[in-house]
Amino acid sequence: MNIFDDDNTDLKVKPQTLSGMAYDKLLDMIMSSAVRPDAHLNVDELAKTFGVSKTPLREALKSLEKTGLVSFRPYAGYSIKTFTAKEIGELYELRILLEAFAVDQIIKVVRDEHVDSLKSIQLYIERNLDVSRVKLFKMNRVFHDYFYSVSDCPKLCEMIGLLWDNLAFFRMLLIQEDNYVANMKSEHWEYIDALEKRQSERLKSLVTTNLRKHAEQVPRLVDEHYRYQSGTRPAASTAFRSSPPG
Questions:
Q1: CB-based burial, 25-45: b 16+ in 10 Å, e otherwise
Q2: Nearest to 134 by CA among 210, 26, 38
Q3: Is the pLDDT of residue 150 over 80?
Q4: Domain 85-224, architecture per CATH
Q5: Tens digits of per-residue pLDDT, 225-235?
Q6: Is 190 helix (H, G, I), strand (E, B) or coil?
Q7: Tens digit of pLDDT for each residue in 155-199?
Q8: CATH 1.10.10.10 fits 18-82+227-242, yes or no
Q9: How buried is 78 (Cβ within 10 angstroms: 0-12 exposed, 13-18 middle, 19+ buried)?
Q10: Which H/E stretch holds residue 34?
């Protein structure tokens, strides 16, 4: 699996579609606190703001709905969804179960070239840390997607990917922490070292410990984010307004 482009200078990514561009912009607006909890999303205004038609914007909103970041109600449209600490905890517990199982499968089939590819991805990330939060999140996702793809269990990877999507917003909140980059680098190199040495139990312990640590951090960050968004600062544009009653 070649993870870099033809001249080996950049990670391979799918060409950016209009819906993909709208998705990234919506996610960035949510992350920057331009949208309050339960805010209604005005499709017409958002399309004008992003310079796209309503079709790719609706596609982006449907993608965000799958992640759990927005919800849709007939006759009311799309709005920003809020989460409880219990819901977030359940998602992390599912990740722990699935990713621990994935480690067992990875250790059975890992080859030296897999380890070399993970090293290359990590070195690329470290050369490109001066990027937006969305880009940093995507690079981190590439590392973990490749890590779990080594298991050669497509359905398992699909399920893990869906949980990643569900938790994308909360992972983005972690990126705002001052020590995020240092922790990410440390975690990735520990994974690589344990994988290279074929240390199954150590690798499983690293994965579960890190996930539990994130699960403990996220509720506080979410609470702070929602409280900040619910403050008195004005909405960024007419594309967002309070959700209609009912």
A1: bbbebbbeebbbbebbbbeee
A2: 26
A3: yes
A4: Up-down Bundle (1.20)
A5: 667 666 544 34
A6: helix
A7: 999 999 988 887 877 777 787 777 889 999 999 999 999 999 999
A8: yes
A9: buried
A10: none
